[in-house]
Specification:
Strand content: 5-15%
Strand order of the largest sheet: 1-2-3
Mean pLDDT: 90
CATH class of the largest domain: Mainly Alpha
Number of helices: 11
Largest sheet: 3 strands, antiparallel
Number of strands: 3
Structural class: mainly alpha
Order of helices and strands: HHHHHHHHHHEEEH
Number of domains: 2
């Protein structure tokens, strides 16, 4: 089982037991202890603790290097999503990690091999094991392959949510109205489309935004709406 997972990773461990430990869920460890009436072997929880820190560090390193103009608050929000259970479990599923896990019978019968929480924890544990056995570079390459391809989409979502949520907070606080986004057009070739979106407050056009995705266009429209309303409010106070 361990050698099969090594092939999935594309790595060869010097210490095979370390990789087995990374794949050993606490439910399996408990069953082994009951079955043998001996001291229980370790589960992957300590390696998960280490791997969590390593994944977090490598995500932050990637963000720091690739987004030099972004502020700390935005980077922190992107990091939180990148190191979250949904994305880590997705990376684990890309490796078919579930079928290589050592799980207790109860966990197996209840769908543990597909459970996001178990898979995300095991992915972190495997990252911890790779670091201890082979160093940081193989972990970095694994994340480049399985996690970082999602980075730009996550970044766009976080930025878009920021501007849209700020505009919504602004309009609800002042007018108690929700902004409405309307798709105006999509043009250009299919591999490089241009989306145009207008944002309205009731029947009033606040701003127009363009972008390579609908989300990006909405983000830019929301940013324009914030600038317009902020200026009007400032002029009114002046």
């Amino acid at each position: 089982m361990v050698s099969g997972f090594e092939r999935r990773l594309g790595l060869t461990f010097k210490d095979k037991d370390l990789l087995k430990l990374a794949l050993s869920h606490s439910s399996w460890v408990y069953e082994q202890a009951v079955k043998t009436a001996e001291t229980a072997p370790q589960s992957n929880e300590r390696l998960e603790f280490l791997g969590d820190a390593i994944v977090g560090f490598l995500v932050v390193e990637k963000l720091y290097r690739d987004y030099p103009l972004e502020n700390e608050g935005t980077l922190a929000r992107v990091k939180a999503v990148m190191a979250s259970e949904p994305l880590l479990s997705r990376a684990a599923k890309a490796l078919d990690m579930g079928k290589f896990l050592f799980l207790g019978k109860g966990e197996i019968h209840s769908g543990g091999r597909e459970r996001d929480s178990i898979l995300a924890d095991a992915f972190e544990a495997v990252c911890g094991a790779i670091y201890l056995d082979l160093g940081m570079d193989p972990v970095r390459l694994l994340l480049e392959r399985l996690l970082f391809p999602y980075l730009q989409d996550v970044f766009d979502d976080v930025i878009c949510l920021d501007y849209k949520s700020k505009l919504q907070e602004f309009t609800q606080g002042v007018d108690r109205l929700l902004p409405e986004y309307r798709l105006v057009s999509v043009s250009g070739p299919s591999h490089q489309p241009l989306f145009v979106v207008d944002v309205y407050l009731e029947s009033r056009l606040l701003a127009r935004g363009e972008g390579r995705t609908k989300k990006e266009a909405e983000q830019n429209a929301a940013e324009g709406g914030i600038k317009l309303l902020s200026k009007e409010r400032s002029d009114g106070l002046g």
